[in-house]
Amino acid sequence: MTLPPDPDLRPPPGTPGATAGALGRVLHLRAAGVSLVVQLHTTSTPTVLHWGADLGDLSEAALADLALSGRTARANNDLDEPQPVRLLPEQAWGWNGRPGLSGHRAGTAWSTRFAPTAALVEEGDGGGRLVLDAVDAEAGLALTLELELLPSGLLRHRATLTNTGAAEYEVADLALALPVPPVATEVFDLAGRWAKERVPQRRPLTVGAHVRENRRGRTGPDAPLVLAVGTQGFGFRTGEVWATHTAFSGNHRSSVEKLSSGTTTLAAGELLLPGEVRLASGEGYRTPWVFGAWSDEGLDGIAARFHRHLRARPHHPPRPRPVVVNTWEAVYFDLDLERLLDLARAAAQVGAERYVLDDGWFRHRRSDDAGLGDWYVDEGIWPQGLHPLVDGVRALGLEFGLWVEPEMVNPDSDLVRAHPDWVLRTGGRTPLPSRQQQVLDLGNPDAYAHVLARLDAILTEYEIAYLKWDHNRDLLEAGSGPSGRAGVHAQTLAVYRLLDELRARHPGVEIESCSSGGLRVDLEILEHTDRVWGSDCLDPLERQQIQRWTTQLVPPELIGSHVGASPSHTTHRSSDLSFRAGTALFASFGVETDLTRMDPAEREELARWVALYKEVRELLHTGTLVRADDHDPSFLVHGTVAPDGGDGLFAVVQLGTPDTSVPGRVRLPGLSPQAEYEVSAQAPGDVPAVRGGKDLPWLASGVRMNGRTLAAVGVAAPALQPQQLVLLRTRRL
Ligand code: DGJ
């Protein structure tokens, strides 16, 4: 649990823009239209005075007055001197809401009062950061807070707590809090379930706490993704919004709390299980990064900040996102070399670029009942190993990818038979099975070394460009080692280490984070992987919504979306190929159906969609996400506009049957107001089934309109039948 020294925490002395001894100052950081004003108290952790609109250049005197102007009047029954909420809310400073730190040392040191000892500030053109050290000598604890405003205008923070006392200190909870102003009156976040991940929910922000807790040991289908508050009626394009995201793939908690005083805070962090973090003398615990996003342009403004941040990472995938063909819904466990090679040939024919062998290839894996943990190519099906398939696929010009689920085991496996103690468990019992599987205890160094060695061996033997890394059960009663102490925290960090170690050994390999579909989607897993699988549901009607809300955090190029079969394997709903392909188009595109049995005409149509994806992927994967505020729940409009406001591609999507016979005009927001555009239908997404069968006059010829008119007035949409979409291309003239 002792944390290694972190070279990034403090820049070497003399670093430009870095000032030590900033205590007592009011700090003003600015980036991308955001101001973050923080008062660095000399006796407590800081107070965030403003997080929101850029305030422009402010003098020291103006900042001091900004601090003074926020001091509240003393109400009846209040503290003699009212106190603002601190970044680490503490009772010692009058806070009677959810505490920033919960913990104790055998019942003592349960209430802290941290006093700062040093503050280091780095200020630059695009944001800056604060590193603040504080101690509570009485409690025997030291704390380091990091707060950064990033060039994207996002802020992020984390805390490190160190036990400086002699006896063990148990941490129950550590979460910093960001205040939001009283104009925020509504709460928004996401819930969901398997195959219907990320379902929006909304309610008024009232006194009390709206708390979202996750004890699944993985991010979950119902993770809030972003927990946002905003001004009344905020939408995709309008309203002021403050949002938070916890970058962690284990248990986590996000909350917004409004006290009866009116003070409202957003807090988030890891959810620790009982006794999970017990610090011996000198040991420390560090929270995950927690992100904050502000926008006065609604939820799209929030999404734009996250996308900009992710796209600026040095390890953001630099290459165009390849067209994937995945074998899962094509053949499931029915693996046969010739059939798989036929599929590869059909994949190459439609223009695919990457072929992923999904599940079933390793020892004992004839169904999902057995084999997890036995990471050796099954000699029965593959007498020559995977070589004939890998070579065959590569000879067709496709990259080869392989499915693995390294964190899991089946009790029916050689691994568990040899090492029954390598399974997470507690209380002398094995957790209830889920998909006939249990979780490998990666906190056990031998288990960790074993799985690392096996994956390394496979990646060394075969030319593998891509791993689909799956994780198919919740972590229940996840006790580690012989003591059975709660182990989700250690397990989550071990998974990150395992991914990093493999990536270091095999730098060219890309990794997809999959977890029963889209159950591990968060910003920390994306630090260790290259794409998330959006959902096991390929039904475009569901996928439209799943992608609409997943892109609230993750840009489309990092979200896997495949064209599946009709009827859909998860919902049994039938759909046209154009609806399936036009939905997958707006993500990291792939195909997951038996192409060898597809009707030739349909296969040709699919090839046209693949060609379109290749043509527009740069636009879709670098552009700005646009979601129009809908007035009719039967349809939605979304699109992408090039960063310079040039070209755009929009989809008008009819979900259900409308109540009115003609849809009227749909607005196409997000383009440059002054620029002139040619608007036309984009093939092959230009021939949807329509009601009445009459062509729209403007669609035949196209129209020329400026961005302001397209956003304010829009164009008449075709009277689409349900589950149809039309693509509209906007080209700047
Ligand atoms: C669950 C994943 O979400 C699916 O895409 C597929 O990879 C299966 N596991 C394979 O078992």
UniProtKB/TrEMBL annotation:
Listed binding positions for substrate are W194, D358, D359, R435, K468, W469, D470, H471, N472, C514, D536
Q: Where is the Glycosyl hydrolase family 36 N-terminal domain?
A: 46-280
Domain of life, source organism:
Bacteria
Query: What's in the keyword line of the UniProt record?
Result: Glycosidase, Hydrolase
Q: Compositional bias (Pro residues) spans?
A: 1-15
What InterPro entries does this protein's entry cite? Aldolase_TIM, Alpga-gal_N_sf, Alpha-glycosidase_related, GH, Glyco_hydro_36, Glyco_hydro_36_N
**Gene3D superfamilies linked:** Aldolase class I, alpha-galactosidase from lactobacil brevis
So where's the catalytic machinery, residue-wise? Answer: D470 (nucleophile), D536 (proton donor)
Q: Which residue intervals make up region (Disordered)?
A: 1-21
One record GO biological process: carbohydrate catabolic process
Please state what class of enzyme this protein is.
Answer: hydrolase
* Reaction catalysis annotation: Hydrolysis of terminal, non-reducing alpha-D-galactose residues in alpha-D-galactosides, including galactose oligosaccharides, galactomannans and galactolipids
**EC code(s) of this entry:** 3.2.1.22
Q: Name one GO molecular function term.
A: alpha-galactosidase activity
Q: Which Pfam families does this entry report, sorted A to Z?
A: Glyco_hydro_36N, Melibiase
Query: Looking at the keywords, is Disulfide bond present?
Result: no
CDD domains attached to this UniProt entry: GH36
Query: What's the family?
Result: Belongs to the glycosyl hydrolase.
Q: Which PANTHER family match?
A: ALPHA-GALACTOSIDASE C-RELATED, GLYCOSIDASE FAMILY 31
Name of the protein in its database record: Alpha-galactosidase
Supply the source organism for this entry: Kineococcus radiotolerans
